[in-house]
Amino acid sequence: MDHWEPLLVSADRIAASFTDTRGGIGRTFFLDLDSGETVSVTPPAPTGRKAIAGPGQFLIGSQGYGAFTTGRFGRDGTETARWASHGAMLVDRNGVPSGPELENSLPSRSRFRRLTPDNALVDGPALTGYHTSDPAMDCEGTTVFWRDGKLLTVDKDLAANELFAMDDSRAVIGRVLLLNEGRVAFSLDNEVLVFRTPLGPLAEGPWPCGGGNLRGNPLSS
Length: 221
Known about the structure:
The protein is an all-beta fold. It is 0% helix and 45% strand. It is built from no helices and 20 strands. The strands form five sheets. Strands 1, 2, 3, 4 and 5 form a five-stranded antiparallel beta sheet that branches. 40% of the residues are buried. The C terminus is likely disordered.
């Protein structure tokens, strides 16, 4: 199984990804939850981040070997949209994906992006550095994540705010947990950091936090 997102379940559909870890090429199988039958399968492609995009819908990312894209797949396994971006995408209550890009380049060319229904990209703030935590989104549509020694937020209008900064380039970063009373917690190498912030509760939506079932903390209904 793909070590990033082993299994995604939404409504009556399952997205199961398998990757050849030696070369980084993977495929995602869309299955019917009741029968277990294969509905569709993606072509072999460089593996990337994935997320639940809505009832029976999924975002499948591809990065590497020149690929840097995200596709949206519907309940029948058909690709309905594709964007020239890849990152740790969250999906708000209206089904709109956004998040920090994760491009393998330094100096950074990544931005915070919003993916529109017509396959276009809306530019958010530019992002320095490289290593990024899995983000989370609060009820007001504000995304919080750690990148380049900074705890950052990007609100629904794509305005950025720096909540905390320190000179730290550690690369082993856990997922962000958005807890009660605006507390934000995540692991940084061998430490756990907890911050008090003005953020609201975790958003109600199909995918308000990143990383996949075993690495993230999605809401369940």
